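Researcher: First entry.
Model:
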Amino acid sequence: MTELPAAAPITGQRVRRSLVPTQQDYEFDAFYTFEMTRVSVFLMNLGASPYEAADAAHEAFLALLPDKWRTLEHPGAYLRTVAYRKYLRQATSRMLPTDPVPDRPGGTCPMELIILTNEQQRMLDLLAELPLAEREAMAWNLDGFNHEETAAILGKNPAAVRQAYKRARTRLINALGLKEAATNE
């Protein structure tokens, strides 16, 4: 599914890339900066460790290069779908990382932006205990997608996504002991 940039023509001429960043470079950098942390957190909501999330998110960004991200109507949704699939494929080769997460251009590591409080970690632990359909519905919702958008992305019925979200919300409310607060809303 990963598309690589087209190979340079074999004509004896070297393809030269300007050392001066273009407008397209700045636009992709802004897109990357905006989405990288959000996609990583999205994957963590689906059960990925921070390292697994960063790895899958980086692979998903590679699928958008060089210019595929510009041609998509919803590049953010595409990015999350590809990243989630990359994460699921990691399941067969999961092991603890020994190398640090590589820095992105500019010397900042995206992992530094993901600092979890105890409450957030508890919420991730609770999300991990949910059945897959409920965890998916909740993760997409937490990332700002409504039930209809989520259903279209996942290829499911909107009513099924809505029901999975409702069940997940009920389970989380019960697990957090917020039942009384939820009934007062």
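Researcher: Second entry.
Model:
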Amino acid sequence: MVLGVVLGGCQGPTVAMPSSSSRVMQPGSPVSPPVSSSAPTPSAGEGLVLAAAREWASRWCGWDWRDPHGARESRAREVMTPDAGRALIGTDSDTWAREVVGTHETATCAPATVQLSTGPRTDTRAHVAISAARTVRNDSGLATETWRENRRVVLAYGPSGRWLVDVAVVGG
């Protein structure tokens, strides 16, 4: 089963049918922030950090067997720092062909929950905790799991001047 190879860092899968009321998105789809009346409104800078992490999650969390090998990685690297993009380990082509394309595997993710974590924070750097419910379907069936990542997000200077997802961090 591809989960151990492709999904590094995930919690163990459980078999379940997705709720008909849950919103499921395909990789690369826009992600809207979760709405909560009791959550404090983030400052403008914090909101940009959270939005950058959500955008990255929407590009990285899911995949589709019909995509060419490496498409998921390319989507994610567009909103990552160069160092983090180079460190991003995707699925090797043989595994992709055998375990994803060969079993018609598709993974869809609910909109990611992103929170600032307790890691060091400056005007140009913050740590975030990202999680999303992921549903993986293939010829063998369906599995749902919780996908989690802790990442640093940095303000990139230069032409883009935007927040980009950086390297994975331990514990936030």
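Model: Note on the second entry: Helices lie at 3-6, 44-60, 71-77, 82-87, 93-101.
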